[in-house]
Amino acid sequence: MVEYTVKKLKRAFFSYFKSKGHEIIKSSSVIPSNDPSLLFTNSGMVQFKNILMGQETNLKRACSIQRCIRAGGKHNDLDDVGKDTYHHTFFEMMGNWSFGDYFKKEAIEYAWDFLVNILKLEQDRLYVTYYKDMDSESYNIWKEFLPSERIIEADKNDNFWEMGDTGPCGPCTEIHYDRIGGRDASRLVNQDDPDVIEIWNIVFIEYNRTPTGLEPLERKCIDTGIGFERLLSILNNVKSNYLTNCFIPIIKNIENMTDKKYEDKLTIEDTAFRAVSDHCRTIAVCLIDNVEFSNEGQGYVLRRILRRAVRYAHDILKMQRRGHRKFGKRNSKRNVA
Q: N or C: which end of the chain has fewer CB within 10 A?
């Protein structure tokens, strides 16, 4: 595989889906404008939620790379960041959407075409899951691309998406990638194995859940999500998101200011490297989107993130306090993917 930079992967994604008739939609703010129940934008579908809920629109096909934060509320990864090589408080989510236009066949074909023919991922490292109880259609479509032993049955917990107790919902199919290859990794799918990871979730929004059950929707929609940093790590053949050029410039600055070296291990020092580099990106994005430090809401979460970054930088990495401001200036907008 050819080495990919942040810009190269974004160009490839937008170019592909534009060629398939999708309108490129800019990332919305990390502060949701249409959902007061969320502290932060936590997925690509947030800015399209009103459309998915039935709002009329002339938009039929869309693609976006959305800035997301998961550091408060239902989706909160703050306490996990640093302890492994793949959790983040800030990340970007690539996605494509269809609003009453194409459906399962095209959504699956686009995903396969982009991964295998554009990005050149090895086919024998790919596995997919589908909801066995109500989505035989996806299974039959996937049989055109994969042998049956790599098309894996899954239950409602893993492969059925719901917005809430009522409202739009539907089955999903997920694409997983085996970082090691050359083996049968089907038993490791959906088992939290760090080497067999989900890279693409395709949701088929075809039902409306009511208090009495499921009703078919007249306007069926597609909602997909791909973790940008995770896919970038695969394309560059590294096992850690923190070894991609989303993070390496920040980590090198930490090394220069602490005389310590990042080794991508599960040590306390490497945990600190990951936490500080992640939190630096999150703080920068929040400030860009006009989040202010405060005692409540998003501002309170931002304070917690800053405190956690400073604590790791000072207590573990022994960064001198006078270096905190200099480090922050070096690692603001230019190191946000």
A: N
